[in-house]
Each structure stands twice: as structure tokens, then as C-alpha cells.
Amino acid sequence: VGSAAGRLAGMQQAIAANAALLDSIARASREQSAAIDEVTTAVRQMDEMTQHNAALVEETNAAIEQTEAQASELDRVVAIFTIDEQPAARVEPAAAPAKGIRGLQEKVKQAARSYLSRGNAAVKEDWSEF
Fold it and tell me: Total domain count for the chain?
């Protein structure tokens, strides 16, 4: 009987230790879940900011093109005037932007459209496996 009581006491201690370990594991799992939620939120915010920045790049490129056209028109209009009876300077047509810039602008536009249409795959992934 004494031996059985000793074994039962040992089993109770082992059960208490297992319960403490399981509680620790559950707490760590909750902490990991909260951390994953924070990472998901951060990724979503970065995705939104990237899309916003891509839209701003497109708007900036459009404004640059419009400004270039307005500057050329202003040069043409100002060339009509003379100062101190000197003949007006000969107006040269505005040089077209370098092909490299046009190509780069087009690549940026394509990348922005591609990104905006496909979104961020990391946000769509299922994080539950963690």
C-alpha cells in the first residue's frame, strides 16, 4: 500500500509538470499568433503604401509631361517679343526627352499596373500553418 501511494504521488507530480508544460506551450502559441497578426498587418500596410507610391509616380510622370509641353509653348510665345530693339532669338523646337527616360517611364507604369492588378501574394497566403 505504501509503495502504491508513493507511485501515485510520483504520478501526480509528473501530471502537474506535464500540465505546466502544456500551459507554457499554449501561452507561447498565443504569443506567436499575436506576432503573426502584427506581421500580417505590417505587410498589408506596406502593400497599401507601395500601391499609393506607384500611383504617385504615375501622377508625377503625367505632371512632368504636361510641364514639358507648357514650357515648350511658353518658349514659343516668348520668342515673339524683342528687347532693346534687338531681334528676337531664334526659337529652337524643344528637344524630345531622351529615349532612355521614356523607356524608364513606361517600365515604371507597367510595373505599377502589374502590381496594382495582382496585389501582394504574401497577404493572400494562409498564415494558419504557423
Answer: 1
Q: Which residue, among 58, 60, 56, has the nearest Cα to 106 in the 3D structure? A: 58
Compute the distance between CA of residue 127 and CA of residue 37 in angstroms, rounded to an integer: 9
Q: Give which of 77, 65, 71 is closest to 94, Cα–Cα.
A: 71
| pLDDT tens per residue across span 53-84 | 999 999 999 999 999 999 999 999 988 887 76
CA distance 104 to 108: 6
Q: Which domain holds residue 13?
A: 2-129
Who's near 44: CB < 8 A, 6+ residues apart? 120, 123
Percentage of the chain modeled with pLDDT above 90: 52
CA distances from 99 to 55, 75, 94 (A): 22, 22, 14
The values of phi and psi at residue 44, to 5°, are -60, -40
- Structural contact between residues 52 and 46, judged by C-beta atoms closer than 8 angstroms: no
